[in-house]
Structures are given as C-alpha cells and as structure tokens.
Write a structure and sequence with these properties.
Layout (H helix, E strand, L loop, with lengths): L6 H5 L8 H42 L6 H16 L22 H39 L5 H14 L1 H4 L5 H16 L7 H17 L4 H20 L9 H16 L11 H5 L22 H4 L8 H6 L1
C-alpha cells in the first residue's frame, strides 16, 4: 500500500455508490430543518405581536374608569336592584315627569353596580382587565380550532383585537355581546356533528343572559340562523354521497329554543325591536357606534363598518 492510498483500493475492494434514496434524504434534511426553523420563527413573531396588542389593551382596560356609559349603568343598576325592574320614573330624566326607564340593559347595570359595592371602582378596573384577557384567550382558542395551527390563529386574534379595540377598552355591555357570540359559536356552530341537547340548552342560557344584558343580543340569533341555513345547504349538496346527519335540524331547534328564551326579559318582544326603534331618528346615525350604518363606499367605511369583523377568520381559513 502506498502512502495516502485508501485501504479499500489496496485490498481491491470498492465502496458501493450512494443510492438515490440516501442522496434525497441528505438533500431534504437541511430543507426540512430550515422549514421547521421558519415555522418556529413565524410562531414567535406572531405570538410577540399578539401579546403586545393584548398588553396594550390590558393597560387601557385597567386605566382609571373613562367609559361615560358606565356611570349610567352604575346608577340604573342601583335603581333596578333597589326599586325593581319597573321603577316609577327614570331618575336620569328629572324634567320628563313620570316617564319610565327602558330596561334594555338592566342586567349589566345590576352586575357592575353589585361589583362596585363589593370591590370598589378600583376593583372594577381589575375585573375589566381580566375580562379582556379572558376574551383574548377565548378568541385564540376559537381561531386555532379549525386548522390547529398556532401562527395563523395568533394573527387572526391580533386582527380581531385591533378591530374590536374600541369595544374591549370600554366597560360596556358590548363585552357581553362579544362573549355571547363566542360562546354560541363554541357550543353550536363549531361542532361538525349535530350539537347535543345539553349544548342547545346551554346556548339558550347564554341567550337568556345576553338578552337582559345588551340590546345587540339579536346578533346571536342571526348567527344561529346563518349556521342553520349553511348546514341545510351543505346537507342538500352532500345528500347523494352521504345521508344527512341532522345538524341543520338540531341547529334549527336551537334557534327556536333560543328565540323563546330571549322573550324572557322585562320588555318582551320589544327588546327584539330595539335596533329599529332606536334608529327612527337621524341623530343616532351621527354616532360612530354599533349602530353605524353599512355604507361600503363611504370614506369612513374602513374604520366603522362591522363587516371588517369577518377579516380575522381569513388567516385560519387560508392557513
């Protein structure tokens, strides 16, 4: 054997050429490692961005109480708690004679008034921040459930928090509406199979609380109606390949039971007509609020349209 000559050449043996599979595996290994690293980096960036938004919202929610409506709800909550749901006169309208108050959000007022007596106004700030944190976590769980991927769910949550920031930072009944919509989606809309009767009656309980806490409870009924129609159309399209599971029928039953539950409020069916009765005049349209009209070509549309609330779902659907 000469110096520097491999042993296999000296003995006359040769090494077999590398197989195509081994070369492919060696090529793919760095690519797979890079992909995993990129996915990990995306999750880290998405998490930091989402948590930064949550932190800002928690600061705003925990600041000294700055929601003008809260003082109205605190006073009316005291009135309802001490005088019943049908007081003789509205204490806010001392020049209006014996005009009775409209009890469209009485439950929220009673709850915040009770909390203020138990923990003080400083405690209300803590409760508000805790509610915002809980709603943020709830949103993340909803957005992650469809695809199971964390980064798109964090992105969707961040978009939702930005769009809903003006509602989340205020201690108003809107928080009940956000929680109610999330709860109905989790209980009835999210399951791919017909929801159990336990879920149906739990959703009815959610609507019962919702109708007495915020006038926009009708959003929940619209959500259930849309889910029912969508399930029915899906069953009709798939009828040839698979028998209907009965999901549309169960959702329809949930809608009927929920509608019956929402009648249990001091105003009865009048509560269901709040949006129409509150928007008879033109002055309400001057408020950039939940009553803001849908004008897609108006210059202020990107900031005031409720249709943008659909955007957070896009990352989970596309991801």
């Amino acid at each position: 054997m000469t110096s520097g000559q491999p042993d296999d050449l000296a003995t006359g043996s040769t090494l077999p050429p590398p197989s195509f599979a081994s070369l492919t595996a060696q090529t793919r290994a760095p690519v797979a490692g890079g992909a995993r690293g990129g996915a990990r980096a995306a999750r880290v960036v998405a998490a930091l961005s989402c948590f930064a938004i949550v932190a800002l919202l928690l600061v705003l929610a925990g600041r000294p109480l700055a929601t003008e409506d809260l003082w109205f709800h605190l006073k009316m909550g005291e009135v309802y708690a001490t005088q019943g749901l049908w007081p003789a006169a509205d204490p806010m309208l001392h020049t209006a004679g014996g005009m009775r108050p409209v009890q469209h959000e009485w439950l929220f007022g009673v709850v915040v008034w009770g909390l203020s007596r138990a923990v003080g106004l400083g405690g209300l700030r803590v409760v508000h921040a805790a509610a915002v944190a809980a709603l943020s976590a709830f949103a993340l769980s909803l957005f992650r459930r469809p695809g199971g991927r964390l980064a798109p769910a964090l992105l969707a949550t961040a978009v939702f928090l930005v769009l809903a920031a003006t509602r989340l930072m205020q201690l108003r009944p809107d928080l009940v509406t956000i929680a109610g919509a999330f709860a109905l989606h989790r209980l009835l809309v999210e399951p791919a199979t017909p929801p159990s009767w336990r879920r149906v009656f739990a959703a009815a309980a959610v609507l019962l609380i919702w109708v007495n806490a915020h006038s926009l409870f009708a959003v929940g009924l619209v959500l259930l109606a849309a889910a029912t129609v969508g399930a029915w159309v899906k069953e009709r399209l798939e009828r040839a390949s698979s028998p209907p599971q009965g999901r549309a029928r169960r959702l329809g039953a949930a809608l009927a039971i929920g509608l019956a539950a929402t009648v249990v409020n001091p105003r009865g069916l009048g509560q269901h007509l709040t949006f129409f009765t509150s928007t008879k005049g033109s002055a309400i349209w001057m408020i950039a609020d939940e009553w803001y009209p849908f004008f897609p070509f108006h210059p202020s549309f990107p900031y005031n349209s409720a249709s943008l609330q659909l955007l957070p779902w896009l990352p989970t659907d596309l991801g």
